[in-house]
């Protein structure tokens, strides 16, 4: 089953690949006017514009003539939307892309459409900055010390080397460092669930990180409060599905911008708007989603959400006492604990209840709107309006992203948000809800209608095999500062999302909640940093310290597909394949199959759709599949590769699709999605048993997806906290109750407005001398609004850094993924959004090059003043590629990374949280050279090196 014709020689393939890159660049002008189908004909003049015909290039003719085939592309990138793209492959080259069109689009059976990022993926695969060959930094030598010439990392030239040389350097240095320093000297500079990280416990151990990344403080004791987490994804799969959204009176989008971040959900939200649902946007800006849905804007300053919600609760109490019908007392008394003295949980160690705290009984500070408005900037009348809207007789769905909890000091935000929903009784009934709107679960929530049966079909994830040595974990925002200082503070035995077992949790909490221990200082000595397709240098906070750490190490090794910032600071770069690339033909060289599961995205399909994917092209240049390289490293180190990678990628791929089961219309039985015949077994060299499903395997691959056709009112539709959550029985067919809606996973079995476990667990750490309360109490967050004033006195003299900056997701990229594609670079520039009056006060106009700065660093962007930004707030879309100018006394990032402006400060109580949105800065008009657009800058790696050449690479974009 060779993917392409065997007669095509590898050398010809490389030539065609380079040609495809040029064709890709031309493809953007495929709608340019011309007098004929020729690509060489001059454009029409304005006089004959009405007679224009489409511009056609050679690849269009290939499709028309049927010279290739459409093949499915699963968009394995970090937006987690899992959309469908199709690539047209001609002689081993993808010459065109399209999205899902194999069936008519409908609300009941929607097409799985890709966004502009995914539909531009050719520009990522066929890109001049692809790492084509193993490379060594010119002045680096093994052995550590002066041999490393670490001061040249990020500036040095590159030499092409062989794979054997690269792996020899890597394994020799690993052996040396393990012998001399031990496991605390080997730092895995990447996700702990990535394929490469699985080998280190079998080599001698290493240092990993554990932090909440996307989820912020919403991951803080989620199940202990009575909410639900899917793995490490908190408060998810518990909102109403797309059929129930129109039953709401109001939908609140709290800190959300799905038009940019989770675009598919706009389909469901727009349908609700058309049905008459009103929308509310809460946050510091009036974004694209709010404008599209005509939302009412509730202004809340960055990081002050807990104060806002406490005032809302105060108003709900006041209004209920004055007029009634605000608080759902039946729900509070039956489904929650801790709001009143009468509802306190059995394990409470204080007599403090939440209502009396709100009224100021314990601190002489009633949490009134007047108290809150000074902090959060929300007008008093808007706080009262929000409380009225949240009343029990209104059908309200509260949907949050995690942006509002990616602040330092947001530990109590999830509990406060939950409490507002609970006071109005907005759980467990149609047209109501209170949960996350996130990735595949965005706008169409609920249990998976398509689930994996596991068993013999179950793939083995990178970390499924038991490690020979336990992982050592550095927590949260202190990654770079801990490595620089040679020590870190440990507060838990495992990662933040690891559950507590009865052995280490005497309370036997039924939740997937970590148990913290007393904080203790642990040593670390970063001699080797091993990067694995995660771009930690660019995406972790405290970038300036990150540069210092990487330049002080003995060796930095990197797996990469492109010249990322992390790769630029490496010593040995090993090129790995994209998810487009694989080889099942021995005549082409090493057999390999892309690993689509290492980042977990293979298991994150949408609830009612299964997306197909397969290798489209052969591995390009000398790129190798990541796990294959890891297996060779393990063999050279004397370890057993099967211990880390017990199943092949191919077996995982096939078992993934064949193990999928779809819930029938009666919601009583799970049935196979894929039909698998004896002929399929022979064709695909499989031993999986035959089965009767909904679609044949080859047909499924040709279509690119299988979508469950649903309808209004069928048994599979979902309302959170009302329906049972379904799982698959041991027979692999029967639908069974895996976790009923009630009781909840908390110790009380209810939503815990007062949670003793939360307080005891967190206060056990001892990092903060002021204990956290069992309820959502207010405390001053670090790097918050108060610090924009001298001495923290709100309303007084402004401090040196008076602007609060946060880092929204951006349509152009998903974190740093996709960001090297010229088409999207041209469509979306890299602005800094700021309030129009703030800009005018600083003499800044739209398009001006500005410097954003604080005590930790400086970076440049182009200004975009906006009326829809709260005064004193700044939005910096994250994920850019840094371009360091080190020509002066300090580093200036001309690429514009917001990570230059953070310092790794830990949150008040939850050290695993990354405070990406807690940036205090100043902005001024830049008096140096104006910024060039990044699409004009050129690739970060010189292109055009011949396959047989020893030509030296030169890193571009670094000012020595």
From TrEMBL:
<dbReference type="InterPro" id="IPR006656">
    <property type="entry name" value="Mopterin_OxRdtase"/>
</dbReference>
<dbReference type="GO" id="GO:0016491">
    <property type="term" value="F:oxidoreductase activity"/>
</dbReference>
<dbReference type="GO" id="GO:0051536">
    <property type="term" value="F:iron-sulfur cluster binding"/>
</dbReference>
<feature type="domain" description="Molybdopterin dinucleotide-binding">
    <location>
        <begin position="805"/>
        <end position="882"/>
    </location>
</feature>
<keyword id="KW-0411">Iron-sulfur</keyword>
<dbReference type="InterPro" id="IPR006657">
    <property type="entry name" value="MoPterin_dinucl-bd_dom"/>
</dbReference>
<dbReference type="Pfam" id="PF01568">
    <property type="entry name" value="Molydop_binding"/>
</dbReference>
<comment type="similarity">
    <text>Belongs to the prokaryotic molybdopterin-containing oxidoreductase family.</text>
</comment>
<protein>
    <submittedName>
        <fullName>Anaerobic dehydrogenase, typically selenocysteine-containing</fullName>
    </submittedName>
</protein>
<dbReference type="GO" id="GO:0046872">
    <property type="term" value="F:metal ion binding"/>
</dbReference>
<dbReference type="InterPro" id="IPR009010">
    <property type="entry name" value="Asp_de-COase-like_dom_sf"/>
</dbReference>
<keyword id="KW-0408">Iron</keyword>
<keyword id="KW-0732">Signal</keyword>
<dbReference type="InterPro" id="IPR006311">
    <property type="entry name" value="TAT_signal"/>
</dbReference>
<keyword id="KW-0479">Metal-binding</keyword>
<feature type="region of interest" description="Disordered">
    <location>
        <begin position="31"/>
        <end position="53"/>
    </location>
</feature>
<dbReference type="GO" id="GO:0043546">
    <property type="term" value="F:molybdopterin cofactor binding"/>
</dbReference>
<dbReference type="InterPro" id="IPR050612">
    <property type="entry name" value="Prok_Mopterin_Oxidored"/>
</dbReference>
<dbReference type="Pfam" id="PF00384">
    <property type="entry name" value="Molybdopterin"/>
</dbReference>
<keyword id="KW-0560">Oxidoreductase</keyword>
<feature type="domain" description="Molybdopterin oxidoreductase">
    <location>
        <begin position="130"/>
        <end position="636"/>
    </location>
</feature>
<feature type="compositionally biased region" description="Polar residues">
    <location>
        <begin position="31"/>
        <end position="51"/>
    </location>
</feature>
């Amino acid at each position: 089953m060779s993917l392409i014709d065997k007669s095509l020689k590898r050398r010809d393939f490389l030539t065609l690949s380079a040609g495809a890159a040029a064709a890709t660049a031309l493809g953007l002008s495929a709608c340019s006017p011309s007098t004929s189908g020729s690509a060489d004909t001059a454009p029409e003049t304005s006089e004959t514009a009405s007679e224009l015909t489409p511009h056609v290039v050679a690849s269009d003719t290939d499709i028309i003539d049927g010279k290739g085939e459409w093949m499915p592309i699963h968009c394995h990138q970090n937006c987690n939307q899992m959309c469908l793209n199709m690539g047209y492959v001609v002689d081993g080259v993808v010459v065109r892309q399209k999205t899902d069109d194999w069936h008519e689009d409908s609300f009941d059976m929607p097409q799985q459409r890709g966004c502009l990022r995914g539909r531009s993926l050719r520009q990522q695969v066929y890109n001049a900055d692809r790492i084509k060959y193993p490379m060594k930094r010119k002045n680096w030598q093994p052995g550590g010390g002066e041999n490393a010439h670490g001061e040249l990392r990020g500036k040095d030239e590159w030499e092409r080397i062989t794979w054997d040389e690269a792996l020899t350097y890597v394994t020799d240095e690993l052996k040396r460092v393990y012998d001399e320093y031990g496991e605390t000297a080997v730092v895995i500079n990447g996700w702990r669930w990535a394929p490469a990280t699985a080998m280190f416990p079998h080599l001698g151990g290493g240092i990993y990180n554990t932090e909440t990344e996307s989820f912020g403080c919403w991951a803080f004791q989620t199940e202990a409060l009575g909410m639900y987490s899917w793995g490490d994804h908190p408060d998810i799969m518990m909102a109403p599905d797309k059929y129930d959204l129109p039953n709401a009176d109001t939908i609140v989008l709290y800190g959300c911008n799905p038009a940019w971040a989770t675009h598919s959900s706009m389909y469901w939200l727009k349908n609700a708007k058309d049905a008459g649902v009103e929308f509310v946007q809460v946050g510091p800006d009036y974004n694209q989603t709010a404008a599209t849905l005509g939302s009412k804007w509730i202004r809340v300053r960055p990081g002050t959400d807990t104060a806002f919600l406490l005032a809302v609760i105060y108003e709900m109490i006041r209004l209920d006492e004055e007029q009634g019908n605000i608080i759902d007392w039946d729900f509070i008394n039956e489904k929650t604990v801790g709001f009143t003295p009468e509802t306190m949980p059995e394990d409470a160690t204080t007599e403090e209840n939440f209502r009396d705290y709100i009224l100021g009984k314990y601190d002489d500070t009633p949490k009134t709107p007047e108290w809150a408005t000074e902090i959060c900037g929300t007008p008093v009348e808007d706080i009262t309006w929000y409380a009225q809207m949240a009343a029990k007789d209104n059908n309200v769905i509260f949907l949050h992203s995690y942006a509002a909890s990616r602040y330092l000091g947001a530990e109590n935000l999830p509990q406060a948000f939950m409490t507002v929903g609970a006071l109005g009784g907005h759980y467990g009934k149609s047209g109501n809800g209170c949960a996350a709107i996130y990735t595949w679960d965005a706008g169409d929530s609920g249990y998976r209608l398509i689930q994996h049966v596991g068993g013999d079909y179950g793939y083995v994830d990178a970390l499924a095999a038991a490690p020979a040595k336990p992982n050592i974990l550095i927590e949260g925002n202190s990654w770079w500062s801990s490595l620089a200082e040679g020590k870190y503070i440990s507060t838990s035995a495992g990662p933040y999302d690891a559950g507590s077992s009865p052995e280490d949790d005497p309370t036997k909490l039924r939740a997937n909640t970590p148990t913290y221990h007393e904080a203790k200082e642990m040593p670390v000595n970063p001699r080797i940093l091993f990067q694995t397709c995660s771009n930690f240098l660019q995406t972790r906070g405290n970038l300036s310290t990150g540069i210092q750490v990487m330049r002080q190490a003995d060796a930095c090794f990197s797996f990469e597909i492109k010249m990322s910032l992390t790769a630029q600071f490496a010593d040995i770069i090993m090129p790995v394949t994209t998810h487009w690339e694989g080889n099942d033909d021995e005549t082409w060289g090493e057999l390999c199959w892309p690993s689509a599961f290492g980042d977990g995205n293979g298991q994150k399909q949408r609830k009612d759709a299964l997306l197909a994917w397969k290798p489209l092209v052969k591995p390009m240049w000398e790129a190798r599949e990541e796990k294959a390289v890891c297996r060779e490293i393990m063999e050279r180190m004397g370890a057993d590769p099967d211990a880390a990678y017990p199943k092949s990628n191919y077996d995982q791929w096939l078992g993934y699709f064949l193990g999928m089961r779809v819930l029938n219309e009666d919601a009583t039985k799970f049935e196979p999605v894929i039909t698998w015949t004896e002929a399929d077994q022979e064709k695909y060299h499989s031993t999986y048993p035959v089965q009767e499903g909904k679609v044949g395997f080859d047909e499924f691959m040709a279509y690119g997806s299988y979508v469950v056709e649903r309808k209004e009112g069928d048994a599979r539709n979902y309302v959170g906290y009302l329906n049972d959550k379904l799982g698959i029985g041991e027979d692999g067919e029967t639908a069974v109750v895996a976790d009923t809606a009630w009781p909840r996973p908390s110790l009380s079995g209810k939503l815990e407005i007062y949670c003793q476990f939360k307080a005891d667990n967190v206060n056990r750490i001892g990092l903060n001398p002021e204990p956290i309360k069992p309820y959502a109490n207010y405390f001053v967050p670090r790097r918050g609004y108060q610090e924009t004033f001298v001495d923290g006195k709100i309303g007084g003299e402004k401090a040196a850094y008076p602007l609060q900056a946060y880092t929204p997701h951006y349509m152009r990229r998903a974190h740093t993924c996709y960001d090297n594609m010229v088409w999207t670079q041209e469509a979306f520039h890299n602005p800094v959004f700021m309030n129009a009056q703030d800009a005018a006060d600083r003499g800044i106009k739209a398009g001006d090059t500005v410097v954003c700065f604080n005590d930790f660093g400086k970076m440049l962007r182009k200004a975009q003043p906006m009326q829809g930004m709260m005064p004193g707030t700044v939005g910096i879309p994250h994920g850019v590629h840094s371009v360091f100018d080190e020509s002066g006394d300090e580093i200036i990032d001309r690429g514009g990374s917001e990570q230059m402006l953070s310092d790794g400060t830990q949150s008040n109580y939850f050290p695993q949280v990354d405070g990406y949105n807690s940036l205090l800065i100043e902005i001024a008009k830049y008096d140096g050279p104006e910024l060039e657009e990044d699409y004009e800058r050129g690739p970060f790696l010189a292109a055009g090196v011949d396959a047989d050449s020893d030509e030296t690479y030169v890193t571009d974009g670094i000012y020595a």
